[in-house]
Design goal:
It is a single chain. By secondary structure, this protein is mainly α. The protein has one domain. The protein is 69% helix and 8% strand. It is built from five helices and two strands; from the N terminus they run ααααββα. The chain has a two-stranded antiparallel ribbon. Strand 1 and strand 2 form a beta hairpin. The protein starts with 13 loop residues before the first helix and ends with a helix.
Length: 107
């Protein structure tokens, strides 16, 4: 019998209940379903450990990274800009592994 507040009770005949019980017990004997509780707990544990390691490594990277240091960050950006200006000034084309210098093409 199943009851819910505000609804009529629902009765399951004994034969139907016995059949459902037999099917359930047969299903539980299949290895995939019998190991589900253990597998599910392991999967949740593994996911939590992986996420904890990710958070720990992310925080460590943020503390130790050169890019997160404001002084080094600005310096590296300036260095990159200077390298790009130099490359634009002295190199015209880059095909494959050959780089043609501007003064070579003028002659």
């Amino acid at each position: 019998m199943r009851t819910c507040p505000g609804e009529e009770p629902e009765f399951t005949p004994l034969e139907v209940w016995k059949r459902e019980c037999y099917v359930f017990e047969s299903l539980i004997e299949i290895p995939v379903f019998s190991r589900y509780k253990w597998w599910k707990n392991f999967r949740v544990w593994k996911t939590n450990v992986r996420y904890s390691k990710f958070v720990k490594n992310r925080e460590s990277f943020q503390r130790q990274s050169v890019l997160m240091n404001p002084i080094m960050y600005v310096t590296l950006l300036r260095l990159r800009d200077q390298a790009q200006l130099t490359a634009q000034k002295y190199f015209l084309l880059c095909k494959g592994q050959c780089m043609y210098r501007v003064h070579v093409l003028r002659h």
